[in-house]
Design brief:
The structure is a single chain. 59% of the residues lie in helices and 0% in strands. It has two domains: 1-31; 40-115, Orthogonal Bundle (Cytochrome Bc1 Complex, Chain D, domain 2), CATH 1.10.760. The radius of gyration is 21 Å and the shape is elongated. The protein has five helices and no strands.
């Protein structure tokens, strides 16, 4: 192989590397858009905005299944957990996002307790936010 033919392959290798990187980036971004978590239409209207913040911010770094299946029911633990996640570089969780995320997690924890320990994380929920109202 001559030097000139080797030089011609460098731009091709770079183009292939760039295309591969673009595909990986697209796949990782689309993974946060995948259908996971809860169906917001099954949540009480007063909880949907809080869930939207939770889903948008928390799915940025991990699957929503992680917090939804954590079986955590202690509000102080959730507060510590969300604070720790907020401090992670690139989490995108602002101080203002903390309250809606914690309100949703409080609601969801109460709903899971109401359904009992054997109940899987499901989309059907009936506890209203007024029943589970908590100030964070």
């Amino acid at each position: 192989m001559s030097v000139s033919s080797f030089r011609g392959s460098i731009p091709i290798a770079r183009a292939l590397t760039a295309a591969w990187a673009a595909l990986v980036l697209e796949a990782s971004c689309s993974s946060s858009m995948r259908s996971e978590g809860l169906d917001p239409s099954t949540l009480p209207a007063e909880v949907r905005d809080d869930y939207a913040v939770f889903a948008r911010r928390c799915s940025k770094c991990h699957s929503l299944a992680r917090p939804l299946t954590a079986a955590i029911s202690d509000d102080s633990y959730w507060s510590m957990y969300v604070t720790r996640m907020r401090r992670q570089p690139g989490s995108g969780i602002s101080q203002e996002d903390t309250a809606p995320i914690l309100r949703f997690l409080h609601y969801y924890s109460l709903e899971q307790r109401r359904q009992g320990p054997a109940a899987p994380a499901s989309s059907s929920t009936t506890t209203s936010r007024s029943e589970s109202k908590r100030t964070f």
